[in-house]
Amino acid sequence: MHGLSFEPGSPHWNIGTSLDDVTGRIKDFDCCFGQPLVQYGLVINQVPGGPGPLFVIRMHHAVFDGWSYESLLDDIEQLYNGQPVPPRESMNRLLHYNRRLNREAADAFWKMAFDGFQGPIFPAPSPGWARPVSAVAKIREVSVNPVSKAEYTMASVIQLAWAILVSSRTGSNDVVFGITVSGRNAPVPGIDQLMGPAIATLPIRIILDMHSTIEDTLKKIQNWATSTIPFEQTGLTCIGQSSPEAAVACQFQTLLVVQPSRLRRESHLLIPLPQNRDQQRGFLSHILTIVAELQENKIHVEAVFDQTVLHPQEIDHMLDQLEEIIHLILDRPSASLHNFRSYTRGDRDQIRQWNKRTNIKPSLVHDTIQNWLVSQPDALAISAWDGCLTYRELLEHAHHLAGYLQARWSMHKGIVAICMERSKWQIVAMVGVLLAGSAFMVLEPELPKERLREMCWITNAELAIACPVTSERAQFLGVDRIFTFTTELLISCDQGYSWVPPRRDPHTPMYVAFTSGSAGSPKGVTVEHAMCHASAQAYQETFGLSSSSRVLYNPSASSDLLIIQTIWTLVAGGCICIPSEANSLSDLAEIIKDLKPNCVALTPAVARMLSPTELPSLDTVVLVGEGVCPSDIDKWAHELSVRVVYALTECTVASAARELLPSNRHEPNNIGRCLNGRSWVVDPDNYHRLLPIGATGELLLSGPMVSRGYLHMPEESQASFVHCPAWASDFDIPKWERFYKTGDLVRYSLDGTILYLGRRDTQVKLNGHRIDLYEIEKSATSLSVDKVALASLMEFNGLSGLQLVLFLAPITTGSKQPGLFQEMDDETQLLVQNLYTYLYKFLPPYMVPSLVIPLSRLPLTPTGKADRSLLQEEASKLGVELLVSYSRALHTKPAPSTGMERILRQIFADVLSIPEDSIHVDQSFLDIGGDSLSAMRVLASSRKHGLSITMNDLLGQRSIAVLSDQLDAQRSLPSHKTRSADEDCTDTR
Asked: What's the pLDDT score for residue 176?
């Protein structure tokens, strides 16, 4: 080591007698702006018998990259051996080249590259996420054969594989993620010998044309990579400034790095030490970073991720998928993306396990109800406003009615329409029709006459059963005969007619239900005995519906939901609690107190009107018909047993269900598992394409719960009920099995439960952008957990074009304000302003509503769901002046209000070369395009203003306002030492 110089002006050397001594001195040396970014150490006088002198070098990550690091080690070894080293080019050449870049040409290139970008960011940051705080790594070795085609590289293969994986998980064929390039392709003389960091990070966009082949797509990716070479040194900040779409693209949360192997020639001088992975991960700025190192016949893949956002099991699954997709690309380059099998063998095995068949013996529903006559004849079956009936009494009346109907009508034909008020006699009529050998259809007498008549026409109903209250309305049904149910008539039935057990098969119709809220003609669905019985049994076994259950027959229940509250209760041997229809929805709490049910099924909107502490009889609440909010779980799950039911008329009402625990508040959209069938997630545009676990797609349901289709609507049935998808053979599914296309977007959770993500028809287009209204609603309620959010696309008189509107209503209904729309007082204005700030942080700009309209209450339909139609109708009448008060322009970009905020905004603007007025105080440095390198310039500029800001504070996603408050507070405290070097530097030995 005699050639080393220790003269003044030479680099500072840290000399010690042990490695710990030297590295400790280096760590104590500040590595901040204006200070040396490279530090050297020499370990001498080692313990006798130990290794010889050690040379230690520590460099800031801003002064080297992998290429120059390897070159540096080569030079050190050459010099130590007394051999000449090749001349190394200065960084000045690359910096000079970057300064001469044609900014206009670069802006035009990147603007065109991301023109019309609509894809989501993956992984999506969770609400409140700022930056990675808990980095964990997963490693995978992927065996591959070398790429034989000259038109593309292995890097392109890996990039396409990742794009396919992301596309399947987001449901978008427009994919963006970050990549790191060597930067050594720039036309700079001697750039391959340049000693310094030339790497560049940039967003890559891959649009998957499902009609193209894999090979053609790979060539496009390779051509795109070539076209970026002149502009790859533009920098993320400048790329993001080229267009709003480019700014969104630069917010990518996956960084994919493909690099050659780091294999070095054998050296007796340089001894590699274990890499300090934990310290390197401290510099991560994305949720997920994937490093793919190309080695001989294999790829070493390391995924580093923030486990507060991504679960380790999810990363394992993604790496499995990535490996299989890479193999499929290499094995079938001529295949089209349209026919590309996206699910892996592991997906197939896991989905098959989740969808194991359940064997429930097909039975007639009324046979099961009759069994209670033996085991509990005197137990209450009905507790109603007009009297009570035991199981003995219920079945006696039902048998007599059935005998009367059998004697007077041919009961094996057609459907019997039951148009009665809700009472104990309505239940007798339902059971009596089943015992007579027919199927029933329950009609809501309050529906328009024309709709009731159409429902009877669709079902070919020839007979209707009415009660004295509804007999007049029943005259408009258009049926051949009307039977008015009275107690006097029931007495005559008891005396003169005997019941004959009908010959019925479990696969014959049991009831017909109509899709609630459907526009245009109502769609009738026929449900068989076997389907209803099996679903009732599955629900009973899963959630404990039993003979001790007292279930409220809710006045607001839809026609299909009433099957759960009535027939399923009787199948379980429970008691149906029936209130008078004279009681309005607002009297629901009193109804529950009076009838003392222990189980109620409500929409979340109706449940929000109640307080669990005021209803001591309840032990179970079933939430159904609408999405659940975290506040609903907070309110009910701590007090009672709560279930959420995913209800579809086409699939025997309760298609999936789940118990909600207080710990489930972070996943209120989890609808659980199928109760009596199987679930599948498919490409929304092609049900023949099954998607992998974790992918977003349309939910298909199959199995015993799926109904026959829509009555007398062959075209609608053919569109929604399908057979034999291409992947069915992988799961041993019989060819006759029906699949129902729900139109709901979902994805599998890691445990096989289903996450509901919205409707296909909630996706709208505005100004060429595809917008998911449900995603906006979900984001809004993540911030305002005590609010219900409804998004819509509307036109208003006085405002030009379509407006993206978000209605915000309180969960409770305690407002005394007479109008539907709330005035913009100070509290509401602050709420809306905070909401806009939050939405801008987590949504693309085109998905941020132009109007946020606060409501004093949420209007409901008769079945207890949010009345979107009424809301839009009333909102369309609002005046321009009031609409302007709700507009985005009045509630965004708050200006600096203190001197400190003005200083910080000026520093940020100067460093990033952006206008000051484009920055508002609720944004952070990273929000406006900052990164770790530009952050060093901010720290230097801050010191000139007498401010002491640490790197962690600046990059910690703190807003200007929060950072300003912190700095103002620091001025009143004693000065303290700045962060040590180990927080802002990385070791390289």
From this structure: 96
